[in-house]
Here is the input.
Amino acid sequence: MPRPPRSPEQVAMMRQKILDVAHSLVHEGGPESVTIRRIAGILGVSHMTLYNYFPSRQSILDALREREMARIVERRQEALERARAGQALEVLQENLNCYANMARRQPAFYRLILTPAAHDDPRRQELQRRFQDQVSHLTQVIQIGMEQGQFAPGSDPAQAALVVLAMANGPLAYLAGGLISDEQFAAIWQITLRLITLYLRGVTADERPLESIALP
Here is the structure.
């Protein structure tokens, strides 16, 4: 007799199991370690069974990216509420530390969901949208901080958000790429957070106002 059709709940549960296994494989060996047959073997099912839930290996990786980014996005509204309650700097630092923890503990996964795409990468548009969402969130946090007097007023908060991300991205990329050790990253990251804080407050490392520094 043919199997009865799966309920939407059963389908959703199996999809999550597949993504959980894919997450573990990415963590252990990078995206290239994710294959239909490996996932099926771990779950104890035929590899053809997985095609009832995902049409391809790439669709599994895409769904995994979306699931993890959705979890990050879920925390953003709460973060904005905390920023409005006077914790804009803490919220911004926690946001950056979230990515730092991912780059440190799960570098392969960090590269999977956050590494910029090449011009011919079909994911390029998706990654650009994700980046713009991140910029928009930081812009809101910085705007709130400016309105509350935690950050220096007068500058464009969207531009400030881009500067913050540019300052943070170097150490994160070096760590996720295996170019620096955890110890080196920890030292660099503390300096980076300090410089970001000084930048947002409108002062330099020697406590002089930024506008007092002459540019060549």
